[in-house]
């Protein structure tokens, strides 16, 4: 007969369970979601965050804000993990996925209070997810031809830039982003796209330059004479060369 595992916990650790603790976990997750809710969308607001060392950060990016928050509640920290996973897998939508997760928990809260077992709710959410995926398949749009594909990619890129500091030039940068991605092979190794910043100039001075090492997006001053690639070569196509 196997012995139960021995788990050592820090002094002062408490073990809580039951309906009351589940509701407490839901409330904590909703508080985390509320902290980034007002940053969502093109009219979203920036957040000013000051850490324990006095360093300040201004951002409306959900993943950045949640990463800088000092969250000690174990259940609430799962919302941070959700944002990190979304950022790693997709690169966008971190705020949306946190708000969506919190809203699902909010809808489940009354059922928990009425004594419904969490496993029943989990199965119900799984069925709802399957129904949602089927509905999304019905809403998909067929794209014919390279021109239509590029237009759709530009629109998608422009949408993600609507809430960024470069939103006024989002179409300019959206086309630049699509150009950069189109230089990659079928595996889309995004690490081959680098961003190099050079002091001076304005947003409209940004260019895309394809090199053997990577496709680099730069904001450059017209007086720049020479910029070297990671491989040590000179980047072609820069003004002044």
TrEMBL record:
Entry's Gene Ontology molecular function annotations: ATP binding; ATP hydrolysis activity; ATP-dependent protein folding chaperone; unfolded protein binding
InterPro entries documented for this protein: Chaperone_TCP-1, Chaperonin_TCP-1_CS, Cpn60/GroEL/TCP-1, GROEL-like_equatorial_sf, TCP-1-like_intermed_sf
Presence of keyword Cell membrane: no
Record keywords, A-Z: ATP-binding, Chaperone, Nucleotide-binding
Source organism superkingdom: Eukaryota
Keyword Ligase: no
Similarity comment text for this entry: Belongs to the TCP-1 chaperonin family.
Protein name: CBN-CCT-7 protein
Species per Swiss-Prot/TrEMBL record: Caenorhabditis brenneri (Nematode worm)
């Amino acid at each position: 007969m196997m012995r139960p595992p021995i788990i050592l916990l820090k002094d002062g650790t408490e073990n809580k369970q039951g309906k009351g603790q589940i509701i407490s976990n839901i409330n904590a997750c909703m508080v985390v979601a509320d902290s980034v809710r007002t940053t969502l969308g093109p009219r979203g607001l920036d957040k000013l965050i000051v850490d324990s060392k006095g360093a300040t950060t201004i951002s409306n990016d959900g993943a950045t804000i949640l990463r800088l928050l000092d969250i000690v509640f174990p259940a609430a920290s799962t919302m941070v993990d959700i944002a990190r996973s979304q950022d790693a897998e997709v690169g966008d939508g971190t705020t949306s996925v946190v708000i969506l997760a919190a809203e699902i928990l909010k809808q489940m809260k009354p059922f928990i209070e009425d004594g419904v077992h969490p496993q029943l709710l989990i199965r119900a959410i799984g069925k709802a997810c399957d129904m949602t995926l089927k509905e999304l398949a019905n809403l998909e749009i067929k794209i014919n031809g390279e021109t239509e594909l590029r237009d759709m990619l530009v629109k998608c890129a422009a949408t993600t830039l609507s809430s960024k500091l470069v939103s006024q030039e989002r179409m300019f940068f959206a086309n630049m982003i699509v150009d950069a991605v189109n230089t990659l092979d079928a595996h889309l190794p995004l690490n081959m796209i680098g961003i190099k910043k050079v002091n001076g100039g304005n947003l409209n001075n940004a260019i895309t330059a394809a090199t053997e090492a990577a496709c680099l997006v730069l904001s450059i001053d017209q007086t720049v004479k020479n910029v070297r690639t990671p491989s040590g070569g000179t980047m072609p196509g820069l003004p002044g060369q």
